[in-house]
Amino acid sequence: MDPRVSPPRLVIDPALHPEVSSELRSSPRLLRMARSGARMETTRSPALLLALPAFLLLVLYLVGWPGAIIAGMGVGLMALLRWMAADSAHRATRRRLHLAREHANQYVLPEDLDYPCQQLLRRAQNAVEVIMRSSVHKAGLIDSIDNQVSLPEEVWQIAQRLRKLSSMHAEQGRIIPRELPPGMEEAFTPYTKALDAAWTSLSQRVRHLEKYAKQVLKADKAYHAHLRLEKLAAKTPEYQQLIAETVRDDLAHERILELSDQAAHVRKLFEESILQARQTAGELLRAPLR
């Protein structure tokens, strides 16, 4: 998917307890409220306070005291149940908002990043998604356990740094004037170069992830070809018999050798693609961001 089409997904520190992570992931609106410092508003309905006595007076006028008492008890019970449900939902929301504020440094929202950083994070997420969804990963052929631990951590480290970089970009834009006095340009250059160097490093990191994803896709294609070849290999005796029965002896021998060579060639390609994917992963994860 083109990262220009949609923003990156929420990134949560993989070190968080799974229950806490699940709670945060289920409430993106509250994460945004926590980030902006917004507070919950208690919604009360004055109209309900006026409507209730009016309703009871109408019942009293129509059916007298006994009907009014029964109606009042019924309405009171309904109001109590509604209040209890609303209060329970309100407390659950407050608890999630408190959790979002408590762990404010352990998640990165798309809104935390400027547009270039959003694009870069989305590319990293797309690459990891390709790897995790691949058949060779699911089959355990490319160190699946290491992928499940290292790749989420890699995305988290990239997201954290992109958030900081976005914040410093914005800060620099506020501090450095658009028009600098003559001779002052060089004084600001080291600060701009520092941000550029950070961007270059993170971009290179994402390119490594994408390289790994490409190697995994290549391994996936070879793996699927290998699986199909195995199905045909089971029928090799039938093919050999067919050739032996229908082709002259010298040609039959040549065709049988071709079958064996082709099977060996595909297996070799498959093994090489798996090895390349593992080597690329090793290069990527040998020196993770910290």
What do these coordinates show?
- The chain folds into 2 domains: 17-102; 111-285, no CATH class.
- It has a two-stranded antiparallel ribbon with strand order 1-2.
- It starts with 10 loop residues before the first strand and ends in a 5-residue tail after the last helix.
- 78% of the residues lie in helices and 1% in strands.
- The radius of gyration is 32 Å and the shape is flat.
- α2 (28-36) crosses α4, α5 runs antiparallel to α7 (144-175) and α5 runs parallel beside α8 (185-233).
- It has 290 residues and is mainly alpha-helical.
- The mean pLDDT is 76.
Question: Which terms would index this structure?
Answer:
290 residues, mainly alpha, two-stranded antiparallel ribbon, 78% helix, flat
* Total DSSP helices: 10
Strand order across the largest sheet: 1-2
DSSP strand content: under 5%
Query: How many strands appear in the DSSP assignment?
Result: 2
* Class derived from helix and strand content: mainly alpha
Distance between the termini: 28 Å
User: How many separate domains make up the residues?
Assistant: 2
Q: Give the overall average pLDDT.
A: 76
- Characterize the main sheet: 2 strands, antiparallel
Task: Write down the overall geometry.
Answer: flat
